[in-house]
Amino acid sequence: MPEQQPNNPLHGVTLKAILEYLVEVYGWEELGNRIKINSFNHDPSIKSSLTFLRKTPWAREKVERLYIKSLKR
């Protein structure tokens, strides 16, 4: 039986969904200003960003933090 995590805003949300939401809310340019990674600033795409974020824990953590922060607005 899956563990319930009612207080975890990331529970059940895919990295792709998080990234698509952030791009919709901020756009690539603002996202690149907030989180300094090349896949947001140079020829950005969901695919290249997901590849980078899946391999780079510190960057993924920043994206997840921004997502949680944006949900509280």
Describe the fold and architecture.
It contains four helices and no strands. The protein has 73 residues and is mostly helical. The longest helix has 20 residues. It is globular and about 40 Å long.
What descriptors fit this protein?
single chain; 73 residues; mainly alpha; 67% helix; 0% strand
Question: How is this structure best summarized?
Answer:
This protein is mainly alpha-helical and 73 residues long. The protein is built from 4 helices and no strands. Helix 1 crosses helix 4 and helix 3 crosses helix 4.
Q: Could you outline the blueprint of secondary structure elements for this entry?
A:
Blueprint: H1 15-34, H2 38-41, H3 46-55, H4 57-71
Helix pairs in contact: 1-3, 1-4, 3-4
Number of separate helices: 4
Largest sheet entry: none
Shape: globular
Order of helices and strands: HHHH
According to DSSP, the number of beta strands is 0
Strand content: under 5%
Secondary structure: helix percent? 55-70%
